[in-house]
Amino acid sequence: MRIASFVTCLLGSASLALAQSGGGFDLTWSTIDCGGAGSNNPSTGGNFSLMGTIGQHDVGVMSGGNFELSGGFWAGVGGDQPCYADCDGSGTLNIFDYICFGNAYSTSDPYADCDGSGVLNIFDYICFGNEYASGCP
User: Number of structural domains, the chain?
Assistant: First the structure.
C-alpha cells in the first residue's frame, strides 16, 4: 500500500512539473521595469548618454485624476527621440519652453541639469539656450 501511495504521489508530482513547462504560452513580449533613467533624464558622461530601466515586472495601466501610468515599453521612445529643448512637450519651440525650464530649475528638477554636471547653475541655462537654438528634428 505504501508503494502504491508513493508511486501515485510521484506520478502526480511529475504531472505538475510538466504543467510548468510552458505549453502553449508565449512570453515574447516582456520587459523588466523600474529604476534607471527615463527618456527625459538620461545618465550622461562626456559624449555618451544612456537610458535604461530594470527592476520589477509589468503591471496594468494605473490611473487617478488626470494622470495615467503604464508599464512595459516606454511610450514614445523608439525611432524619434524627444527634443530636449521642447521642455513642455508641445512639439513647438517657444517661450513656454523657457518658462518650463525655469520652473524645472527653480524646483531643482534633475531635468534642468542640462550640462549633466550634477549642479544647477548658469551653465545649465546656457546649455538649454544652445539646445533651443539647435532646434528640434
Answer: 2
